[in-house]
Amino acid sequence: xxxxxxxxxxxxxxxxxxxxxxxxxxxxxxxxxxxxxxxxxxxxxxxxxxxxxxxxxxxxxxxxxxxxxxxxxxxxxxxxxxxxxxxxxxxxxxxxxxxxxxxxxxxxxxxxxxxxxxxxxxxxxxxxxxxxxxxxxxxxxxxxxxxxxxxxxxxxxxxxxxxxxxxxxxxxxxxxxxxxxxxxxxxxxxxxxxxxxxxxx
Length: 201
Fold this sequence. Notes:
By secondary structure, the chain is mostly helical. It has helices at 2-19, 22-25, 28-39, 52-56, 72-88, 104-109, 115-129, 134-150, 157-167, 173-186, 193-200. The radius of gyration is 17 Å and the shape is globular.
């Protein structure tokens, strides 16, 4: 649990540095770093030396791998940050937003309008969830994130980073998948939180 908290906090700090508010996004340095991160989508951590400083800067020692092998934490952080940079492209305000309604399953469900479209979105999401490793998962998440960006739908990247970390542990993978599925099917649209809680009892 402590590492999950560290991962969330680190991702939050890095996103705040890159695009903490609309004003930050207008700075040339932020734009350049976001553009560099986008080039890292789908690649392994460390594959692009120009990204070392962006995702490793000030990372807690206990989250870092050794001997050139990325740790689970580095995979989670790197994947979350590169996807965030992809999501951010073309937007003047941060596309990260904390909260249950912005977790991956809920965000993806917002793409679905009508039964036919919902089935198409559900199929893409299922393919991503069935990924066997982080390289495959990041490849499929790239497609979903592009769709979220095109529809101005925000995503909780702190929560995603935590999920990506847990996804790599064999005993936790199915739990993460189920969480995504529960969130996808729990989306309640115009219901208020009180009604949703009533439904869960």
